[in-house]
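tool_log.txt
---
The assistant was asked to compare two proteins side by side. It first ran the structure predictor on the initial sequence, then on the second. Raw inputs and outputs are pasted verbatim so the downstream comparison step can read them without reformatting.
(1)
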Amino acid sequence: MTYPRNLLIRPGAAGVFHCVSRCVRRAFLCGVDRASGRSFEHRRQWIEDRALALCELFAVSLHAYAVMSNHFHVVVELVPGEALAWTESDVAQRWVRLFPIRGGNVELDALRIQALLANPERLAVLRRRLCDLGWFMRCLNEPIARRANREDQCKGRFWEGRYKAQALLDDRAVLAAMAYVDLNPIRAGITDRLDRSSHTSIQVRLRRLAASSNAATQVLPPIAGVRSTLHALSEGHYIELVDWTGRELRPGKRGAIPKAAPSALHRLGIRPDRWPLQVKATGSGYWRAIGSVQSLLDQAAALGQQWMRGIGVARRLVA
């Protein structure tokens, strides 16, 4: 049974979400289609570029992403307070940049901005949309679908009807979802090294770490978007944690990282024997939300339910 998004994601409220969009056709989103032999590898960059561009326009923080062969993951934080601080001119300019006129026309863009500034009610609607998860995902998915359809010379759906969204109810859930997303290529056996995990946020973090002398001790920043720090973890410690988690999830098997060392878990109060289970459960143990037992019970009550998938997993993780 599906629920309206506004029951799961309260309009205008801050929050962090793990979202997945999956291709509906047999043809691959990216990579090489085994049926036809065609390569769609270049489409990975389309999605990566689009997600990073949207972070400049929306009041969001992008904490993790991974572009796979027929789906992609993002961990997105909504920061409505940022949108409330924008001027009316900021809102109008962002919206015009988000939906530009084909071919580009500076004069028409200026007229569109003036028209929006003369309509405060419309600007209020747009301000809300620029910190809305549904609009973020729509503006990410629709251009990719149109571009792919043009390339494939076909019409119709490119994505499944609804993207999957999980509310991440506490910091531990956010950290586990980030690690789960960053480890997608490792689990899939595409690579056995994080620095070779192309089109993922962990590769961006590794490059940032190599380029900056203070990145190792810097409090974990987002990949793009509004400046936000959810954890007291440094970027270097996060990378170390993801590396160790990859080996623990699949020790000695194809798709596991060959070297690793535990760190940070004790500082965060997380049991090392429970952490890999928490990360793995992000993909299969939960459904609409991820968090502690009490946070899941609260979320269930908000939906008018007495139970929610994942409560049993949450209890086992603290046992």
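(2)
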Amino acid sequence: MNLSLLIDLDDTLLKNDIDSFLPPYLDSFSKRVSPYIDPNKFVRTLLAGTQEMVKNRCPDRTLREVFEATFFSLLDVDKDRFQELADSFYSEAFPTLRYLTQPIPEAAQLVEESMRRGYRMAIATNPLFPLTAVLQRLAWGNLPADRYPFEVIASYETFHFTKPDPAYFIEVLGRMGWPSGAILVIGDDIEREIICGGRLGLPAYWIPKPGVVPPDGCEAPTAIGALGNVLPWLDSNPLDNLIPKFDTPLAQLAILRATPAILDSFSRSLSPEKMTKQPEKNEWSITEVFCHLRDVDLEVNLPRLIKVLNENNPFLPGRETDPWAIERNYCLQDGKEALRQFISARLDILNLLESLMQEDWHLPARHAIFGPTQLGEIVNIICGHDRVHVKQVYNLMENI
């Protein structure tokens, strides 16, 4: 069985107390920009932008876009000039902060052996830093990204959500193409990683700091131990026990929100030619997938959910949507505009569902194919549909 590891970085793979790291980081950064920006105002503005990233819920705005919208609205500074200063800081000054960190020998052992075993790995760090800062910290931990096959490295340029937003871990999984099989979150932060992952249905291995105990009333982690005990623990536990369950409203809402964010990240690097390229005859292009998702949300999913909420045990007729690709000439449409329309429709669905009471998820309906059902099961079907097409787009990108 396949196993995917979602591994935190700071104080998991690299000894780096972020509370001790941040003051020297901010001091060094503010000194670099001080000829152009008042250091105190710079730090306040940088932290304000960071707070906006943490609050972001928009699946079509990367964390960098959210940060910059706040940062440059509060500082009268030329964007290109600031980028030059930031680039010089990360290339020249940021490396001098390495002394604040220490490599963890067990980290390289875990990654080396996981690679040998064929486990899939993502660096599931909180994506509040640029990619260069994450790559440098990986190198400080003797885990350079050019040596190890990390499939995803979370950073603010391409991610939309941060920990502990449940959509964050779904975004990581989607960026990996929705891996099948067992999944394990590995981290030190009980709130942002272990509890968040557990609430989603993700098995989680907690590496506790001395003196830290789980909050009262929280569900126990799947496992607790040192980083060096992860592999022995895996060897003594069937991987079947690490199959995730995304069957709660919280998990389903996270999938619904993360799906458009994942597709947004995928699409940004694609030319119109690649968007419309079909890998094989009669196989959908990425544009056709986006059009399909848009129309299914607009014409099937949203009307069904409204019907269940407004009627007593309504009948939900089946809809054959695959022929729409030919009937509506999806291949001739603007794929990125279709994605924008899908995101708009998906936000309407999220606004509807996030306002529900717990009992509303049990409202009954009669489905033409599945028979007696409930609103929660209908949402679960939508989530399954999302996962299929995220995986499809991921595979298409590998082959175009």
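---
observation on (2): The first helix runs from residue 18 to 33. The mean pLDDT is 96.
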